Amino acid sequence: MTTTYDKFLEQFHAQGRQKADGYDKSHFDGLTTDEMEKAFELLTGECLAPGVFEWLNLLDRERAIALAKQQIQLHPAGKSGIQRAYSYLHFIEKGNSDIFNLMHIYPNLPNRDRDETLWIIKKSNIPQTKKSDFFEQTLETETDIDVATTAADFFLVENAVPRSIPAERKEFYEFRSKLVNANACDKKIIINAIKTQ
Predict the structure, then answer these.
(1) Which domain holds residue 151?
(2) What is the value of pTM for the model shown?
(3) Which of 8, 121, 166, 176 is paired with 23 by a 20 to 30 Å CA distance?
């Protein structure tokens, strides 16, 4: 057994803060073929944890892709962490269908996963208009104030609301506050005003 594999196992079995720190290349560089196989099998059980699909990809790209697709098939209505499988496939395969499917299951995700999903959509390569429409729709339905704030930020950015000088930033944050806190009718008026400016 290599020292790298010992280090990998120590991180795999870690708890608390050390576990949250995640893996890095030193946990994988120098693994034997047999150890890579064992590491892949162990990581399969925590594949929906943050960052794990990237390490699975390093170990065996084709199996990682198959595993992500399997997770999506097993949890079509969503599950905590499933957004990471969609995100991984989107950025590996360069298609947009995974992001559109993720948008579809968005309402079923827990709050912290919905916030992470907004970031995934923001970073994706789907058309800007699709992003803007999704963030608008999210603003109309989102009940968690922190997630709604993220959606408001992204909606404003996708609609090119300026914020480079203090006066612009002040207006940007006023818009954001209104988008998060206004009633449905006022929110729609603000959204339409932003889209037509």
Answers:
(1) 127-197
(2) 0.89
(3) 121
